[in-house]
Amino acid sequence: MELCTTVTAIRELVTAWKKAGLRIAVVPTMGYLHEGHLSLMRIARQNADRVVTTIFVNPTQFGPTEDLEKYPRDLKRDQQLCEEVGVDAIFHPVPAEMYAPDFSTWVTEGSLSQTLCGAFRPIHFRGVCTVCLKLFNITLADVAVFGRKDAQQALVIERMVRDLNIPIQIIQAPLVREADGLALSSRNKYLAAEERTRALALSRGLRAAQAKFDAGERNAQALKDAVLAELTPAADSIDYVDVMARATLRPIETVDQPALLAIAAYIGKTRLIDNLFLD
Ligand code: PAF
User: Fold this and answer.
1) Is residue 58 lining ligand 1, measured as CB closer than 6 Å?
2) First to last CA, the chain
3) Which atom of ligand 1 is least distant from the CA of 57?
4) Tell me, what's the pLDDT at 189?
5) CB of 209 within 8 A of CB of 261?
6) Is 127's C-beta closer than 6 angstroms to any atom of ligand 1?
7) Of the residues 84, 145, 215, 254, which has the maximum number of CB atoms within 10 A of its CB?
8) Interatomic CA distance for residues 28 and 131, integer angstroms
9) Active-site annotation holder among 34, 37, 92, 124
């Protein structure tokens, strides 16, 4: 497995692969890898001849008061995990390799990115879209794999790819949970033991909503109430519990189309997200 830290180095590698007619998959990550990331890499492996994982804590998607500096990092461990799942190359640039001091070109998705997390993290999706387009261009990937844990992110990226005619296939991969229901996230590392117990309220709430939905409940408020009954006593604050149409990420009152029940809440100082697809 190659470790490339410059655009020139990864470009040389992927260009050779392209010349040999190989199909390339990219899995963009910010590192501190967990089983959720590894599942994306395995899916990438099944859909391409070569897999590139990018490990880059992208500064442009963090707001001024967010956790950029303390975001967990462990390249050695990440390298080992990537090797184990058969990744062919890691692209791990420093911020200066990705952003020139006078960097001034941004990708802004103007609809799906405005609600849910976008309403609370105003520059987040601009940073995500911009870095992902750069990573697609740098790795010359034919396919990219994104996890449904960040459901809004996956939908925003799909929209960007469609709108800008980017020649890449986007695969959305299932969300991966711990045995007790907690959605896997690099940020789970921030949780103290007592906070981790409280964090289970997110998945418990979603399970309660799923049970209601399976029993025929289609009223969005009733589904949100099922989540809130679990989440309100456990969370320190709640950014949102929303039922959105998946096509538009706008709120709906009745689940009569593919929908997303999405949560963002703080447990202690840690902002956690989780979601459920309602079909
Ligand atoms: O989901 C993430 O880890 C990041 O938002 C991504 C897609 C790697 C872009 O920095």
Assistant:
1) yes
2) 40
3) 10
4) 95
5) yes
6) no
7) 145
8) 9
9) 37
**Residue 213 CB partners (closer than 8 Å, separation 6+):** 223, 255, 278
- Alpha carbon 231 to its chain centroid, in Å, reads 22
Q: Do you know the residue count of the chain? A: 279
The burial class, CB within 10 Å (0-12 / 13-18 / 19+), for 66 is: middle
- pLDDT band of residue 107 (cuts 50, 70, 90) is very high
In our burial notation (b when 16+ CB lie closer than 10 A, e otherwise), range 32-55 reads bbbebbbbbbbbbbebbebbbbbb
| Residue limits of CATH 3.40.50.620 in the chain | 2-173
The pTM of this model reads 0.97
Q: Is 53 in the pocket of ligand 1 (CB under 6 A)?
A: no
Instruction: Note the pLDDT of residue 92.
Output: 98
* Per-residue pLDDT tens over the stretch 20-45: 999 999 999 999 999 999 999 999 99
CATH 3.30.1300.10 spans which residues of the chain?
186-278
Rounded to the nearest 10 degrees, the angle between the axes of helix 124-139 and helix 151-163 is 60
Query: Cβ contacts of residue 89 below 8 Å, gap of 6+?
Result: 1, 2, 3, 4, 10, 13, 14, 50, 51, 52, 53
Average pLDDT over residues 222-246: 98
CATH superfamily assigned to domain 186-278: Pantoate-beta-alanine ligase, C-terminal domain (3.30.1300.10)
What is the atom index within ligand 1 of the atom nearest the CA of 150?
1
Spelled out in words, what is the top-level CATH class assigned to the domain 2-173? alpha beta
Q: Which of 87, 5, 4 is nearest to 39 (CA)?
A: 87
Both tokens assigned to 148? 């449904």
Q: Is 37 a residue of the active site?
A: yes
